[in-house]
């Protein structure tokens, strides 16, 4: 009996394809274990598939030893995945194709601004409009004549590719909605992000682009992750609609917080799964800590 361990209602649910998509920039901590378990349980409870995706597009920050540690730590926790993990850094050509298509449709433009250019413009403007990720891009390069952009590219000036948000929103003719588990449908407002970056010179494809491309390619039906990434859904639904990719459903879970109420983060030295294991904790104990209810 394949589903014997799961509650009866799960047996009626449609098989979900979920994924855990860590970036190998450090060792996994309890927050990652929580995200992985959340996705794994949903796939296993419905007889679906649980995929592992290594989000290593930022090749300057990702390390092979952390990637190996991810596989080993998940195994130790008792999580198995279906198929071979997808490594994003092996697929830059696929992301490039999407960027080329969006460019041909006039939905992206090259932006030559440095961070300092943007900060100066935002400061000069006084009260710059804020988006979920900080001040909105003030649009300095949005209407650069083609000849000027071509000249700068030919001269080797570094640039990012930005989504022309106004045109992108216009290009979508159906109402843009997203389904969040436990909340239902909401109307998306990607315009609050402004002209997001879809690719840079050093990292040729952005998180938003790769995550939506791969979720579509891999047939992910339920996108699960921590609720810090919930606002990104509106941009993701826009990219999905622009590219004709299917709309997955979303289930964001509460982040694990430390005793002081701060979210766990690698950069703040959150204790790694490996350190907990070396201290002598069992996988079952670590799973229980990772899945502790959060208020
Ligand atoms: N790679 C992202 C992270 O490590 C997660 C992406 C996602 O689940 O959409 O935070």
Walk me through the structure:
The chain is of the alpha/beta class. The protein folds into two domains: 114 residues, HUPs (Rossmann fold); 125 residues, Glutamyl-tRNA Synthetase, Domain 3 (Glutamyl-tRNA Synthetase, domain 3, Alpha-Beta Complex). It is built from eleven helices and twelve strands. The chain has a three-stranded parallel β-sheet with strand order 1-2-3. Helix 2 crosses helix 11 and helix 8 packs across helix 9. The two termini are 35 Å apart. The N terminus is likely disordered. It binds glutamic acid. The site of glutamic acid has 7 residues, from loops.
In short:
The chain is globular.
The overall average pLDDT, rounded, is 93
Bound molecules: glutamic acid
Strand content: 15-25%
**How many domains comprise the coordinates?**
2
What is the 3D shape? globular
Please mark out the parts with pLDDT under 50 across 5 or more consecutive residues, or reply none: 1-6
Q: What is the N-to-C succession of helices and strands? A: HEHEHEHEHEEHEHEEEHEHEHH
Largest sheet: 3 strands, parallel
CATH architectural name of the largest domain: Alpha-Beta Complex
Strand order, largest beta sheet? 1-2-3
Helix residue percentage: 25-40%
Number of helices: 11
The secondary structure category is alpha/beta
State Rg: 21 Å
What is the rounded distance between the termini? Answer: 35 Å
User: What would you give as the CATH superfamily of the largest domain?
Assistant: Glutamyl-tRNA Synthetase, Domain 3
Q: Which oligomeric state applies?
A: single chain
């Amino acid at each position: 009996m394949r589903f014997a361990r799961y509650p009866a209602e799960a047996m009626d649910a449609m098989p979900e394809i979920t994924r855990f998509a860590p970036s190998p920039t450090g060792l996994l901590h309890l927050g990652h274990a929580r995200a992985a378990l959340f996705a794994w349980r949903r796939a296993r409870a419905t007889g679906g598939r649980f995929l592992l995706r290594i989000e290593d597009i930022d090749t300057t920050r990702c390390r092979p030893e952390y990637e190996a540690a991810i596989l080993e730590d998940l195994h130790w926790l008792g999580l198995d995945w279906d198929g071979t993990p997808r490594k994003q850094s092996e697929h830059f050509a696929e992301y490039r194709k999407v960027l080329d298509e969006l460019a041909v449709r006039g939905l992206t433009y090259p932006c030559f601004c440095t961070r300092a250019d943007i900060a100066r413009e935002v400061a000069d403007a006084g009260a710059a409009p804020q988006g979920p990720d900080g001040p909105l891009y003030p649009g300095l390069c949005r209407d650069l004549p083609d000849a000027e952009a071509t000249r700068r590219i030919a001269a080797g000036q570094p640039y990012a590719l930005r989504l022309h948000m106004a045109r992108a929103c216009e290009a979508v003719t159906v109402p843009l909605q997203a389904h969040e588990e436990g909340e239902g449908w909401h109307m998306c407002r990607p315009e609050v992000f402004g002209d997001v970056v879809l690719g840079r010179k050093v990292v040729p494809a952005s998180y938003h682009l790769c995550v939506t491309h791969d979720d579509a390619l891999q047939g992910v039906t339920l996108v699960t992750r921590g609720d810090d990434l919930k606002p990104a859904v509106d941009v993701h639904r826009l990219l999905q609609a622009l590219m004709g990719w299917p709309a997955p459903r979303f289930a964001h879970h509460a982040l694990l917080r430390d005793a002081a109420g701060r979210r766990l983060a690698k950069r703040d030295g959150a204790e790694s799964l490996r350190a907990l294991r070396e201290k002598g904790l069992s996988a079952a104990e670590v799973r229980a800590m990772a899945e502790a209810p959060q208020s």
